[in-house]
Amino acid sequence: MSVDVAHVRPARPKDAHALATAYEEAWRGAYQGIIPHLDLERMIARRGPGWWARALQRRASVLVLDFQGDVAGYVTFGRCRVGRGPYRGEIFELYLCPTYQGLGLGTKLFEGARQKLREGRLHGLLVWALADNEAACDFYLRLGGKPIAEGAEGFGGTSLRKIAFAWR
């Protein structure tokens, strides 16, 4: 008999505190040394439990990776923000706490969001990642994402290059 110790499920209002913790841990792990320190700290401070509770009350599309009862990561997704085209769905954020990275759990989150997008008839998928976040770019490439566009994201007075990865 196999036991699934990690599964993807919809976020619930009671997950707000755990989502804030996962966000903080994941963003520090991913962006320290990439996003300027004060900008990163401000971003983390804005996404506390209250922010997550309000997002979940507004019925934001959020799935969590539940690892033996703990929120180990999350993914947010929805209709693609880039106008018309072949990409109807978008993953806005996909993050795992550093402790859970490298175990294939990010793929579970990715596939969970992709399935929900398909169920909503949002075929074709787009994900943006900062180019300096090599772990994220490598992750999306391993999942078969094709780099199709570049842009820039501003953080204070710093502009960082970002890459759009796409799946049909």
TrEMBL record:
SUPFAM superfamilies: Acyl-CoA N-acyltransferases (Nat) (SSF55729). Keywords: Acyltransferase, Transferase. InterPro entries: Acyl_CoA_acyltransferase (IPR016181), Bact_Acetyltransf (IPR050832), GNAT_dom (IPR000182). It comes from the Bacteria. GO terms for molecular function: acyltransferase activity, transferring groups other than amino-acyl groups. Residues 6-168 form the N-acetyltransferase domain. This is GCN5 family acetyltransferase. It comes from Methyloceanibacter methanicus. The lineage of its organism: Bacteria, Pseudomonadati, Pseudomonadota, Alphaproteobacteria, Hyphomicrobiales.
